[in-house]
Amino acid sequence: MQRVEGGSFMMGATDDQYDRDLYTDKPAHLVFLSPFYIATTEVTNALWHAIMPEKDTIAPKGYPNNPIAYTSWIDCQEFVRRLDSITGLPFRLPTEAEWEYAARGGQRSKHYRFAGGNEADSVGWIYSCSGNWSHPVARKHPNELGLYDMTGNVSEWCQDRFGSYQLSTAPDPCGADTGSFRVARGGSYDECSANCHISVRRWYTPETAAGYIGFRVALTLPGDPMIQPVEEEPPLSRNVRIKGKRLRFIYVSDEEPYYISEPIESTLWRKVMQIDPPEKAKNIAIGMSQTERVRFAEYCSRDAETILYVATAKQTAIAEQKGLIEPFTFDAEKNGKQKTVREVQRKRKAADKLSAWTEMVGFKMRKPDDPILLQYKRENGDSRPLRLVIVVPQK
Fold it and tell me: Are residues 74 and 197 in the same domain?
């Protein structure tokens, strides 16, 4: 069994996972998990025979180190019940969130597409290299936590009922409250790599028993403390380094407390996105689309190894009302005579009329790009400065 330290991660269709429209692993959402243990390999035929000797017809005895298959979710429940009685420990199937967190490498994650690397056949037995049959466990490279075969070989039952993902979840989620299907994860020996990346979900009835579905066990020890508990009095500010730059976050006390950053400057935007923001001449980066903002937050999360989100208008407003951040306004001196958006719009309308007339007589006037108006005219654009937030996990 491998101990997996508690922590938070983005579950589902993150950028490092997404390669096609798999609606079942959307939306990507933040999950908090307590520490747990998970088996380094899938349950083998040999271990199955040791615990369930009367069910020797399920697994061929000639392949003791191959993962057990043809076991239904119901069979798995009987297996862990007997394992409990033998060891005195509360074994179980992993939850879907625990399985994905462990497959991603937990706190040691390097954001691979598959469990242990970006090439599926180097870390797991899949259709391209398996010969369409399972193989002995622990023959491929392990992932960052030393776990084997979480990609390919056989799919693995999870404890959860299958259900749609939600943007917000309680700590240690256990899946849907109702439903007829149970989740299986990891892909199998008869699937292509596109069906085996970490976030892909499968679901079957609990009675399903197939040659491509097996399982591994998990364990939570009673009284095991969280490694990163929420402090009773969180610090008033936090510093996060992104691309070598220190970004300061201010604590905002609310029903769902969070830290909010200072406005993102154009220099940091360019370093992270490797492109110029629409308003590159300004100190504060503005005018980006919401899609660009979300992507920026994801890139920063990887660099900082901290889950970062784009601040919502509500989060920004709460911080402003509490006097923790200053409302953003354009500096009239820095922006010349352009004092209000309405003024700019009037000037642009007049310029449009003049341009239309001059084009009729054979030449076109150059209309200066106005930074304020461009914010409003840019497709899917946003005139607010970009801020990031860190969600404070709740006990």
Answer: yes
Question: How far is it, in rounded angstroms, from Cα 137 to Cα 331?
Answer: 64
CA distance 136 to 139: 7
Q: Is 210 exposed, middle or buried (0-12, 13-18, 19+ CB in 10 A)?
A: middle
Contact partners, residue 16, CB within 8 Å, separation at least 6: 111, 112, 113
24-81 pLDDT, tens per residue? Answer: 888 888 899 999 999 999 999 999 999 998 887 676 667 899 999 999 999 999 999 9
State whether 195 and 249 are in the same domain: no
**Whole-angstrom Cα distance, residue 300 to residue 10?**
13
Residue 244 structure tokens: 């070598």
Residue with tokens 């939850």: 95
> What is the rounded CA–CA span in Å between residue 312 and residue 126?
41
Determine the 3-state secondary structure of 53 from DSSP.
helix
For the record, the structure tokens of 92 come out as 């179980």
Tens of pLDDT along 295-350? Answer: 899 999 888 878 899 999 899 989 988 888 888 764 444 444 434 455 555 665 66
Residue 151 sits in the same domain as residue 172: yes
Domains of the chain: total: 2
Which 3 state secondary structure label does DSSP give 299? helix
Q: What is the dihedral of CA 315, 320, 324, 329, to 10 degrees?
A: 120
Give the residue numbers spanning the domain of 355: 230-395
Q: Let me know if residue 224 belongs to a domain.
A: no
Residues contacting residue 305 through CB under 8 Å, at least 6 positions apart: none
CATH code of 178's domain: 3.90.1580.10
- Asked whether the beta carbons of 213 and 71 are under 8 A apart, the reply is yes
Final residue before a domain boundary, out of 219, 246, 268: 219
160's CB contacts (< 8 A; 6+ apart) are: 95, 96, 174, 175, 176, 182, 183
Rounded to whole angstroms, the Cα distance separating 369 from 286 reads 15
